[in-house]
Specification:
661 residues; alpha+beta; nine-stranded antiparallel β-sheet; 31% helix
């Protein structure tokens, strides 16, 4: 008797079971059904059977291909981990399938993607570097294929280029497949209003040659996300179950909640289950499945729309599909003319949003590229917003951290994003706890109680930045009580390290700073005394005093200013003591570890503003060492794999040190 995860059965090419049961027994007398297959098509069957257990296994055919018995070439009994998750299961199938049959991330290749959506909407589609389109969070994918001259072309068979809509700096992505004498251009954008948007996709096929070509464009609907299978925060990427799929009333219905609406009549539609052969297996054979509706309790159903396209010489054809938001009443385009009008309106809208009010100009070609990148980044910040929530992402990072929100807001304020920042403050600030603690993060479940001690200073900094860059003190007046609450909580935290215990020589480097937290991702396994927290706390105390003076709260302002001066003295002493304790010549990331982390130390320079008070030689050694290691990674021989966007903070520190080159 043993546990196993499933079977792989290779059938005889002519005589195979169309319907059959996989039975299990522990005594060779009493049998139970472990798996039932209703639509076998021969070839290889991948039988997903998680956590099965038996001593005996029997394959009992009920109907066969020719009524003449069956032939089995091979049976593999797979281990438990083979079907531990659907992602593990499909990764193995992809490993054994022709390249291009499955998304690039199976079994183990990086896949890049970008966003498609409208501002303020809670829905963002993902558009992959290969032209696949995930219509909503955790949902199915529309994936293009071309069949020409008896051959199926996948993303693996073409040269691919990628760019953004050239008429404007807009978050409207395009992907081009280049094959010999053939080109496919895929573009996607969104239209409509928040909570009732429609994602549109255009598939434009070009025949640049002198001879006519007849080809078929397939748009496969598959139970996979664009979001990679190894992503796990908030939403597990990879598999996205399709339990029902049908063609009715001119649209494809998926799981009875989502729709794919072709704006031109397709030549055909077919649906299948994995037992009856993955949809790409059918497309490689040059046919669609006969069924136009399919149900699969495992969620492995898939299907495809086919568009037969006779292409004269030097011509192009285009196909449009619309993907309205699930469960929302939308005014989606109903024909190609309306789709093109929506496209032009989207370009104009993004042009007005990103060009008209963008106050930064830089000289030269490189300056132009930097400004274009800034505009695109602004567009994606706006797309990632869910209503007033400023968020760093749309899938794994679809949460609002006050850290990310405060620093993003500081950037938005410098390019005219005043309204968005005020809305974020008004939404986030009320999540503060009664004791003054500011939650590190808020999502649809509410405030996260995890102890991250940088958050209290960040809320104050956010409010102060708004006042500094707008001159509008009304937000500070409205939230003054919250500012005082955060100051009080910071003071409560630092007092935990002002007891006599921390006068001892072996603990003096902890004296007067904030207690351990996991705000720094590198310390998530075990909380540490992170200087990242202290730099933000000091920034918050300085800003609270500044706000107090601006509001005429002179006594409170003086009290907080004195507190910030005292805290600064303790913080600088802690850094010096930690360097002596760990025998290092750089500013450590955490007092406990004496670790090297320049991306953390940057906070002390900006937004901390403490360069002139930090030990200068240690700061220079910190960033000098960072740059030395950067050059080794850039030029070799140092190998590395970890990358974080936090590294973008370092150039600002190098500039502040005068190291512009």
């Amino acid at each position: 008797r043993r546990e196993f995860g499933g079977l792989v059965i290779d059938w005889d090419s002519l005589d195979f079971a169309r319907t059959y049961d996989v039975l299990g027994s522990n005594d060779d007398r009493t049998w139970r059904v472990l798996r039932r297959v209703a639509r076998g098509n021969g070839g290889r069957d991948w039988l997903y059977m998680p956590e099965s257990e038996a001593q005996w296994v029997r394959i009992a055919a009920r109907t066969t291909s020719r009524g003449r018995g069956i032939g089995v070439r091979d049976v593999q009994v797979k281990p438990l981990e083979w079907s531990e998750t659907p992602n593990a299961f499909f990764a193995d199938i992809a490993r054994e399938s022709p390249p291009g049959s499955f998304p690039r991330y199976w079994p183990d290749r990086q896949t890049f993607w970008t966003l498609v959506g409208i501002e303020d909407d809670f829905r963002e589609a993902l558009f992959s570097e290969d032209g696949a389109l995930e219509t909503d969070k955790g949902s199915f994918t529309i994936e293009p294929f071309l069949r020409v001259d008896g051959r199926l072309l996948t993303w693996n068979d073409v040269e691919i280029t990628r760019w953004l809509e050239p008429k404007a700096t807009s978050p409207i992505p395009l992907v081009r497949w280049q094959a010999p004498n053939l080109m496919l251009e895929i573009m996607s954008f969104a239209t409509g209003r928040a909570q009732a948007s429609t994602v549109l996709a255009r598939y434009r096929v070009f025949n640049p040659g002198d001879a006519p070509v007849r080809l078929t464009l397939y748009l496969a609907i598959r139970p996979f996300q664009v979001n990679s299978a190894w992503q796990f925060l908030n939403t597990i990427g990879g598999f996205a179950p399709i339990q029902s799929l049908s063609w009715r009333a001119g649209r494809v219905h998926i799981n009875d909640t989502a729709h794919v609406v072709p704006l031109q009549v397709p030549s055909a539609f077919g649906a299948t289950t994995l037992d009856a052969g993955d949809i790409v297996d059918h497309l490689r054979a040059g046919r669609l499945p006969a069924a136009t509706a399919m149900r699969d309790s495992l969620g492995f159903a898939s299907g495809a729309l086919a568009f037969d396209l006779p292409m004269p010489a030097r011509s192009h054809r285009e196909i449009w599909i619309a993907l309205p938001a699930r469960g929302a009443r939308t005014t989606a385009p109903r024909n190609v003319a309306q789709a093109n009008a929506s496209f032009e309106a989207a370009i104009r809208g993004w042009h007005n949003r990103l060009e008209s009010n963008f106050p930064i100009q830089l000289p030269g070609a490189s300056g132009f590229q930097i400004v274009q990148a800034m505009k695109t980044s602004l567009a994606h910040i706006l797309l990632n917003r869910d209503g007033p929530r400023i968020q760093p992402g749309s899938r794994s990072y679809e949460r609002s951290w006050i850290r990310d929100g405060a620093l993003t807001s500081a950037a938005l304020l410098r390019i005219g994003g005043t309204a968005e920042v005020r809305e974020f403050i008004e939404w986030y600030a009320p999540f503060q706890y009664d004791n003054g603690k500011v939650p590190c993060c808020v999502d649809h479940r509410g405030a996260d109680p995890v102890p991250e001690h940088d958050s209290h200073g960040q809320l104050i900094y956010l409010i102060a930045e708004y006042v500094r860059l707008t001159g509008d003190t009304s937000v500070a007046r409205e939230h003054w009580a919250r500012v005082l609450g955060a100051v009080g909580y910071i003071d409560t935290l630092r007092r935990q390290r002002l007891t006599p215990e921390y006068d001892a020589p072996d603990k003096r480097h902890f004296r007067g700073i904030l207690p351990p937290s996991i705000s720094h991702e590198g310390y998530s396994a075990k909380p540490m005394h992170s200087y990242w927290d202290d730099f933000f706390a000091l920034r918050g105390l300085k800003d609270a005093a500044e706000l107090g003076f601006a509001l005429g709260e002179i006594d409170e302002a003086r009290r907080i200013a004195a507190l910030s001066d005292t805290f600064r003295v303790d913080l600088m002493a802690s850094i010096e003591n930690a360097m002596r304790h760990h025998k290092i010549d750089f500013v450590p990331g955490a007092a406990d570890l004496g670790d090297f982390d320049a991306t953390s130390t940057t906070v002390g320079l900006a937004p901390g503003g403490e360069l002139h008070r930090l030990p200068r030689a240690a700061v220079e050694r910190t960033f000098g060492r960072y740059y030395e290691e950067f050059v080794k990674r850039r030029d070799g021989p140092q190998t590395w794999e970890a990358y974080t966007p936090y590294e973008f903070r370092v150039p600002g520190s190098l500039v502040r040190l005068g190291w512009r080159d």
